[in-house]
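pinging the channel bc i need a second pair of eyes. not urgent but kinda urgent?? the chain im working w is below, pasted from the shared doc
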Amino acid sequence: MLGLEQSGQHALVVDELKNFATLIDRYGHIPNGNRTYYLSRSQPPFFAQMVRLVAEKDGDSVYTQYLPELQREYAYWMNGSDGLPAGRASRHVVRLADGTLLNRYWDERAVPRDESYREDVVTAQQTPQRDSADLWRNLRAGGETGWDFSSRWFADGKTLATVDVTSLVPVDLNCLLADLERTLAKAYRLRGDVTQAENMEQRAATRADAIRRVLWDPQLKAFGDYDFVHRTLTHRLTAATVYPLYTGVASRQQAKTVAATLQRELLRPGGLATTQVNSSQQWDAPNGWAPLQYLAVIGLRRYSEPALAQTIATRWIRTNVSYYQHTGKLVEKYDVDAATPGVSAGGGEYPLQDGFGWTNGVLRALLVLYPQTVQASRPSDIPEGPAGVSAAAASAAVAPKNTHRLHETQVNP
């Protein structure tokens, strides 16, 4: 949607917003994909961001127009919160021992994922000491995070079979929900419902305070995730630490500290690394992902860190452009440590995908913010003009064509 807006395709952005609103109207949330077997979990709650994007051009009436969908998505994420005792969790909601109410990722079903059935059965067979239903629910909840998969979710920090998403209070989800609460407050105020507006403003303020208090990790000098079962932070540094900056939740001092941590620990030649761990999962080092680059850039600019924001954007743009000029395509993720142009990212359950919506959109948005970058992005080994286009086209013609075809895996009867 960001890329479409920057490309003058506002009508398509509105159509996309309507499509997502229709999903919420039908199912109460935006499913993890437009297939029936994804109905048991949601996408991360970015709908409020979409409403804001359209409202920036079409005016504040957009907030009241989509208030019913904002309400319903919020109700989905908060279902089970009423009367939830301290120290307990229900569905997506967690009430900590001190009474603080926050959220987690969850899936309604505790069976193998339909889209990765064989892989999930094999993982359970390889881990007979673990309850299969618990494993499968956590694999499914990992899909809801969007980070499927990452050492961020692994109890041992390295092995998929130890995935433990539902025990964690994640920083990114709670920042998105704080933003949803603020958006609801604005929509209620525009409608003239002061009581509901004040209620949502208080909820947002309470959640933001909890994020600053519970999810700040002095050891990492960054925001992290909280294991509410063991009552401890996970102490795993990831690029999700940028979410409190992007949503304006971080304090000024926290934002300054996060910026220094990003520059020291996660900044790579090609952009921001997702984590510091190379686990062979796709949401780990050395991979970088477009949404995280964008959130970091916007968050750093919001907290008066323009130099680091520009550095991240410049490196990411050059990574994208260089790969395109060597292969003739953009892709879903990039190896931000790659020393040689055109090296493909890897890891995860499927091959590297061509395309990709968020890569295209973020690149378009960042080029608008930093138009001077593209002028210096052509690699030295790619000729200028038509010859360079031909070279890229030739590379693309011989590049492997990737699909979501499953790898061959033996399943024990």
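so The first helix runs from residue 2 to 6. and The CA atoms of residues 31 and 42 lie 4 Å apart. — does that match what u expected or am i reading it wrong
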